[in-house]
Specification:
Number of helices: 7
Helix content: 40-55%
CATH topology: Rossmann fold
Radius of gyration: 17 Å
Number of domains: 1
Oligomer: single chain
Strand content: 5-15%
Strand order of the largest sheet: 3-2-1-4-5-6-7
Largest sheet: 7 strands, parallel
CATH architecture: 3-Layer(aba) Sandwich
Length: 234
């Protein structure tokens, strides 16, 4: 599709990959609704990049239903969902509480499912749409301390495959991107502290560019899944 025809809802759109992707789409002539929990930050970012702000906590089913309904009203032809909302919860197995594990799944997995479900209903009616799930290389291989986060991303990958099978007959492309470490606020939000900028590691714009490339492939084809790694991080 032409990026100028993209009318996207981007969850987790107030910073990092979500913000960078929304900006890239808007700069190319498309439209973007960005969603996140923090209303003030969201509205500030929306004003900065020319997006529409719709606050939403993706763990709330009623808020998700309202979000998609409002997106359909705001955009001329809602046709792209970028499922990007998520965070990391890192703890060794012996220290991991059921509450923390459940909270991680509610955002990264169940939240993504609910936004995709409501969006798919609209896309099916139009016999066209695109869903891109932002996963992680942690969804391909586990690591020490990653039980909750890794589980949420492995589950997202499994759901992506199910949705792809169900929605292809309706001309809906379901895709997944797996970034390795990206220099955003992710580490700080995960309680691991801020890290100095490293020019050899990925930045949010790298992932935004990849997402836009996936969308810009002519509609007769699609890229089911891709991973993005830093070439030689130091």
């Amino acid at each position: 599709m032409e990026l100028s025809n993209v009318n996207a809802l981007i969850t987790g759109g107030s910073s990092g990959i979500g913000k960078a992707t929304a900006k890239s789409i808007i700069d190319a002539g498309g439209q973007a609704v960005i969603a996140a929990r923090s209303k003030d930050t969201l509205e500030e970012v929306a004003s900065e990049i020319g997006a529409t702000a719709l606050p939403c906590d993706v763990t709330s089913e009623s808020e998700v239903i309202s979000l998609v309904d409002q997106t359909i009203q705001e955009l001329d032809d809602y046709n792209v969902l970028i499922n990007n909302a998520g965070y990391g919860e890192f703890s060794r197995l012996v220290n991991l509480s059921a509450t923390d594990f459940e909270r991680q799944l509610k955002t990264n997995t169940i939240g993504a499912m609910m936004v995709a479900r409501e969006s798919a209903k609209h896309f099916i009616k139009n016999d066209y749409g695109n869903i891109i799930n932002v996963s992680s290389t942690a969804g391909k291989k586990g690591f020490e301390g990653g039980t909750a986060y890794v589980a949420s991303k492995f589950a997202l990958g499994g759901m992506t495959e199910c949705w792809r099978s169900e929605l292809r007959p309706h001309n809906i492309r379901v895709m997944q991107i797996n970034p390795s470490e990206v220099q955003t606020k992710f580490s700080k939000n995960a309680g691991q502290g801020s890290r100095p900028f490293n020019e050899t590691k990925l930045v949010a714009g790298d992932i935004a560019e990849t997402i836009c490339s996936m969308l810009s492939l002519p509609d007769r084809g699609f890229i089911p899944e891709t991973s993005v790694w830093a070439t030689n991080p130091r």
